[in-house]
Amino acid sequence: MALKADVLLDGEGKGEVLALTHPISFWGGVDPRTGLIIDARHPERGQSIAGKILAMPAMIGSSSAAAVMLELIHSGRSPTALLMPEPDAILLLGIIVAREMGWAVPPAYRLSAVEQRALQGKMVAIGADGVIEVTN
């Protein structure tokens, strides 16, 4: 099984996919020190996004998402890659700032929510060209 995603922020990623079932706000929804989903109403509450390929069906906007992503990257608790159906400029800004600071950052790709769900729990490798290969 191979899928093709559009590259939003270049790089390669590999790991287990955590495909969220509902949109998430990083501000108040993710603990930047631990990488845990802390939103009490989110179905994936208590799961960690750290070291995962995070597939998000949508974002709940917040101008603070960039700061939370920057903190996640700085603390070593960020996802290894992001999959989203549409670019989220604020969230991606946090990654761009971290890259400018010389930190290792997760790449980001555009992939439909339906295709994301099909990857839940699978180990995948995402190439610099956006090709997603299931490795397990």
N to C succession of SSEs: EEEEHEHEHEE
CATH homologous superfamily placement: Phosphohistidine domain
What is the fold named in CATH at topology level? Glucose Oxidase, domain 1
- Helix fraction bin: 10-25%
Percent of residues in β-strands: 15-25%
Main sheet strand line-up: 1-8-7-3-4-5-6-2
CATH class: Alpha Beta
Overall SS class: alpha/beta
The total count of helices amounts to 3
* Gyration radius from CA atoms, angstroms: 13 Å
Number of β-strand runs? 8
Which stretches are poorly predicted, pLDDT < 50 over at least 5 residues? Answer: none
Tally of distinct domains: 1
- This entry's quaternary arrangement is single chain
Largest sheet features: 8 strands, mixed
- Rounded mean pLDDT score: 95
- Overall 3D shape: globular
Distance separating the two termini: 10 Å
CATH architecture: 3-Layer(bba) Sandwich
Description:
The chain is 21% helix and 24% strand. It is an alpha/beta fold and 136 residues long. The protein has one domain (2-134): Glucose Oxidase, domain 1 (3-Layer(bba) Sandwich). Strands 1-8-7-3-4-5-6-2 form an eight-stranded mixed beta sheet. The longest helix has 12 residues, at 89-100. The N and C termini lie close together (10 Å).
